[in-house]
Design goal:
It is a single chain. By secondary structure, the chain is an alpha+beta fold. It is built from eleven helices and six strands. It has helices at 4-22, 27-41, 47-54, 91-110, 163-176, 187-194, 199-202, 205-218, 220-233, 238-241, 246-272, and strands spanning 56-64, 67-77, 80-84, 119-123, 127-133, 150-157. Strands 1-2-3-4-5-6 form a six-stranded mixed β-sheet, with helices on both faces. The longest helix has 27 residues, at 246-272.
Length: 281
């Protein structure tokens, strides 16, 4: 359950958001209100909150009627595209917002993002709709709002600013924007999120290798022992492993080291039966 101080801030946000929507405020004002409350509703350093705030109006390439054009996603968190509108109870506003969500999801697919991890969200900050791509993508490799199909996987409609409504909103945001508890624990999902070939792992590879190389330079004798044990563990003959370049050996070892760390973190979360908060050394 969220802390009481965060619930109080969420209640204040809901009150202001409802007042703005009722008054017919512009989309930008409604979005700014939500953004201004985000850091008050969640712990300091929450990554998805910082990303949401810092990546407003994200540029994306769209395919419209066969032409490649520039577009802007209201907010983007990794593979999550968020479209905000001023009042989703107005049908025409909802339909236009959903059209844009389809377009953004198509843009992600065109970039090569796996369709199973693409998420589109439509919201006026009080009503929330979460979509994923449905079925098989077209085989021509060009995806547009016309040939991509979305299915609704989650939704939330905040009716008042009660404690219960505030709690539901915070948990919903953690799940769908923070992706806490929002993915099934399967081998395929783990591979896409944390595997060596994952688009998310790629950004950390150089840091991982750098960490290993720095540790080796501090204690080369210990690394020599570890290298022998590691080679035996992966069933590579000692004579053959040294035929590889030093960089190749260390890169392979670094990736194995990364996987072992991820396995320990996953085990801790599974044993705790919940998503544990991030920590910093």
């Amino acid at each position: 359950m969220p802390q009481l101080s965060y619930i109080d801030q969420a209640r204040a946000f809901i009150h202001d958001a409802m007042a703005l929507i009722s008054a017919g405020a512009r989309e930008s004002r409604i979005r700014e209100n939500f953004t201004s409350y985000l850091r008050l509703m969640f712990p300091a350093g929450t990554r998805w909150v910082d990303t949401h705030i810092n990546q407003g109006e994200t540029t994306v390439r769209l395919n419209r009627h066969g032409s490649d054009v520039a577009g802007f996603i209201d907010n983007c968190i990794d593979n999550i595209a968020i479209e905000y509108e001023k009042n989703l109870s107005v049908r025409s506003v909802f339909e236009e917002g959903l059209r844009q969500v389809r377009e953004y999801c198509a843009a992600f697919a065109n970039k090569g993002v796996d369709k199973d991890i693409i998420v589109g969200i439509l919201s006026d900050t009080i009503n929330w709709y979460v979509y994923k791509i449905q079925g098989t993508l077209p085989g021509d490799g060009i995806y547009t709002q016309e040939n991509i199909s979305l299915t609704l996987v989650d939704e939330l409609h905040v009716a008042d600013n009660s404690v219960l409504s505030a709690e539901k909103l915070l948990l919903f945001l953690q799940k769908n924007l923070g992706k806490i508890g929002g993915r099934e624990l399967t081998a395929e999902a783990l591979s896409k999120d944390f595997g060596i070939d994952s688009i998310y792992t790629a950004r950390y590879v150089s840091d991982i290798i750098g960490y290993v190389n720095d540790s080796i330079s501090k204690n080369p004798g210990y690394y020599s022992l570890i290298e022998d044990l590691w080679c035996a563990f992966v069933d590579v003959e000692f004579s053959n492993i040294h035929k590889l370049s030093t960089d190749s050996i260390r890169q392979t070892y670094s990736l194995e080291f990364y996987i072992s760390v991820i396995a320990k973190l996953l085990a801790a979360n599974i044993l705790a039966n919940k998503a544990l908060p991030p920590f910093r050394a």
